[in-house]
Amino acid sequence: MIIHVANPIYDSVFKYIMEDERIAKTILSALLKKEVVHVTVRPHEYSNTTRDTLSMFRIDFAATVREKEGNEIKDCIVLIELQKTWLNTETLRFRQYLGAQYNNKNNIREADEKGFAYPMVAVYLLGHKVGNIKEPIVYVNHDVFDYNGNVVAEGNAEPFVESLTRNSIIVQIPRLQGNVNNRLEKILSVFDQTNVDGDTQQVLKIDEDKYADDNDMMYVLHKLTAAAANSEMRQDMNVEDEFYKAIEDRDTAIMQRDKILKEQSEQLSQQSEQLSQQSEQISQQSEQISQQSEQISQQSEQISQQSEQLKNMAKALSASGLSNEQISQMTGMSIAEIAHLLE
After folding, report:
1. Is 10 exposed, middle or buried (0-12, 13-18, 19+ CB in 10 A)?
2. Distance from CA of residue 182 to its chain's centroid?
3. DSSP per residue, 65-82
4. Helix or strand run (H / E) with residue 34
5. Which of 164, 195, 270, 321 could make an SS bond with 204 (beta carbons 3.0 to 4.6 A apart)?
6. Is residue 47 exposed (0-12), middle (13-18) or buried (19+ Cβ within 10 Å)?
7. Interacting residues of 146 by C-beta distance below 8 A, sequence separation 6+
8. Which among 279, 282, 338 is positioned nearest to 311, based on CA atoms?
9. Residues 274-332: tens digit of each pLDDT
10. What contacts 135, CB < 8 A, 6 or more positions away?
11. pTM above 0.70?
């Protein structure tokens, strides 16, 4: 049977379901691939600190998990950041938040005299794709190695190491797309945006029969169904839509402006290159004209020298008693030219 549920990618809906301990334990157990024995929401002052620029909702949990080996009970901190927007994330925002958590004294084990911190796991639920990573869910886990690259088996569990490093889980919501290959993908399928019903993103249509054999998932669906029917919740979603529509319109305008500026910059660069080429051509032409002028000047000097030589020759021949006609025959000059030279 097809049911309509509230879209958990909305901040208000996500907060609504994650504040339910059973749902939080269900989702965190699937993400961590460990049994979460107990979980509580940790109040903090960092939620939604970047709502003026990007949709980023943050919620932190103190979780007690049961390790697979030795049935050991262990406390840890789980930081979840849900980014709804279609824009790629500036990683600096995530790093700043992690830095604030490392500085938070509440993350130090109270009973630990050495001041070791709780192990920390960062979970990123992203409304956009991350580069060329095709897998919808990826785990980034640290490990401890010796100089030769061999894993130090007992290194990860050391409090000193756990205090300074963290594991991360990245979920690319756009890559979920109905793929259910494991427990986690089954639980996260309620985030699959291909199930959006109609023009509004506020409601998803879900086939309830696919989860009939899973009590925890049926509980999640019933919670989301209640959220969809809650007038205050729908109003909160309307406010989010209006808020993020304004942000996305602004960001789209900025992107278009940047595109136009980039095109104009490329055109100016091309024009500048053309002007540079024209300037080079003019410089070459100027050099050619200068060379031609120098050649003309040299030719003019040669002609002047030749004229002087002819004049001297004509005078010498005339002094030797030759007539102008005889001089003309010997030099090839006209009688008028000879007369002019002898003046």
Report:
1. buried
2. 30
3. EE-SSTT-EEEEEEEEEE
4. none
5. 195
6. middle
7. 152
8. 338
9. 999 999 999 999 999 999 988 998 888 888 888 888 788 878 888 787 888 887 887 77
10. 172, 175
11. no
